[in-house]
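Much of what follows relies on a compact textual record of a protein's fold. Think of the row as the fold of the chain written in a discrete alphabet. An example makes this concrete, so a full record is given next.


***
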Amino acid sequence: MDTTARHQARTWIASRLTSDAPDMLQMWQTIWRRKWGILALILIVMMVAALGTFAVTPTYRATATLLIEQKKANVVSIEQVYGAEGTGNEYLETQFQLLKSRALAERVVRRLELTSHPEFDPRQQDGPLIDVRGLLAGFSSVAEANPATGTQSLPENAGGPSEAKIFDEVTRELMARVTIEPMGKSQLVKVMVDMTDPELATRAANALANGFIEAQLEASMDMSMMATTWMNNRMVELRSKLKDAESRLQAFREKENLVDVGGVASVSAAELTATSDRMIDARRQRAEAQSQYRQVESMRKGGWEKLATIPAVLGHPLIQQFKSDEAKARAKVDELSKRYGSRHPALEAARSDLAAASASLRGQVEQIVAGIERNYQLAVANEESLRASVESNKAQIQKISRKEFEVRELMREVEANRTLYDTFMTRLKETTATADLEAANARVVDPAVLPSAPIRPMKGLIVGLSGILALVCSVAMTLLLQILNNTFKSIEEVESKLNLPVLGILPLVKNRQRSQIAHLFSSNEDRSFSESIRTIRTGLVLSGMAEPHRILVVTSSLPGEGKSTVAANLAYAFGQLEKVLLVDADLRRPTLAKNFKFPVGTPGLANLIAGTARVEDCIKTIEGIDMLCAGAVPPNPLELLSSERFAAVIEDLKSRYDRVIIDSPPIQAVSDATILATHADAQIYVIKSETTPVPLAQKGVGQLLQSNSPVTGVVLNQVDVRKAQKQGYHYGGYYDYYGYTSSQPATEAQKA
């Protein structure tokens, strides 16, 4: 027995370690058991969503497509006098913002008279169920009441909203319903308007597109008119300035007796001008001759070789020729000196040629220098002569110069005014000629058509999403309730979480007293209950074929799980086959004497252990079953059960009866059950369906297995079969066979 108990303990611990892993199959079974509730919830939510979507007023979207061109066609060759053509994304983005502008929205509101349309006019719309703004306004008006007179000032809009306010609200409402969407990287743009009236949405979209084009044309026309007006005003000013300039020029000529023939000229003035020009030429010639002369004077100390480097001398053609001859002679001397000795005749001849060439060059240099000196003296004399002539007529020359300057200034002013006037005249004519030819920068590609279907609410999508959401929420709620309801609800859960076989289940019994349930097997009033007890008996008999279970202990985790009822009915079931003794070993809260109405003071197990009574006096026979009640409740039940006298009593009873069934206290309440487990050949662990927490039962079974107690199996008690079968749990077929689910009403659990 010890080996079997240790094996059960090791198996239970191993299964306990792996029980925390998520079981997908169990989750699916949980969901499948609740499938009809989940399906009902989904259908209800989808129906509510469908009703809600049908109650919502549908919204239609009308779409017009515009082509916005970045450049206009230039009719004239000059640039336009107003505006600045933009290019790129900035220009298109600007046009998109203009499409969403308030000015364009106001144009559409006026054109379509939206202020009187029921969809936009706040006076024709139903107010909210709770007017929060009105309440706040009322509170604020009460707070602003005059404390001295107790009067309250009326709000400004007591007579209703003004036309301006209604127009503003309608405009803002229309702007909120307009959507501008560019089409990719093209110049096409969609103008979309959302309204509950599809016809009005179509008209509004087309009105926005056409209004945008008209606004661009009007802006262009206004700018053209402004430019024309400004240019006309400028033309008047320029014409006046030109006339004034011409008048001043003519008056000056008449006053000074000037003749305009290619400039200012007269007989005396022409002569003076010619003299002045000759003097200027003489001064230039003298400056050039003086420059050359100074170069000669600066180089004279260096000899004729230095004089030969002066630019005026060096640039003379003869000097160039003589220098070339000298260079050739020198080159010949250098060549012969390398070939012959210093006294060679050829070398001597070459040296003579070099000396002759150098002498010719020197002579020519001296002649040119002398010519430079003579030219300088002649230039000085000529300049002095012309200066004297000019000085004699200096006053007259200065007077003529001043007149010339004034005439040229007046002529420049006239020319400038005439050029500016002609330019403005040309542009004014071009602008006037093209004033009525305005090219818009946009055109309607696809006008809006009447929408055939609303864009919202998207009934199918909403109903589908609501169904999916309901499915997810219901599944999550089912799994959450399953996790929170950490109790035993089926045989599979008991066997998987405790790793113990289920000997049987006992159905839920209602409208019966505790004493009646204890006699339920013997009375055979509930066939399904009786068959369940027989099933448990059969399992115990088969599990003890090799070695019969003489001492059978029945325990549970907590009080109220029905262990005493199970023990009593098992005693009746075994009593049909063998000699049985039912022992109430719960010395703290005994129930056997109360259930079977033993006389007060009947001696029992406590008296037998204490030696104050005999076995024959303590055992009572009820309906053919011997019973041993707890007797007088002792102050030290644990010490009595742990004593050797109790072990001797158990051995004596074991020799008298074929089977001793002991009703043990709960394992989690006191330690008595652990002591009783050491004397048991087999042990039954009673679990109340959907009540006993799983961790508590695991802890109780673990304590029994660790104390080497042979836990034979589990009895799942107080099972509501009808409810369990509705949820998808199955416990066998004999309930249907006996007609339990159709004939027996659901009852409350029998409690021990």
Observations:
- The chain has a mean pLDDT of 77.
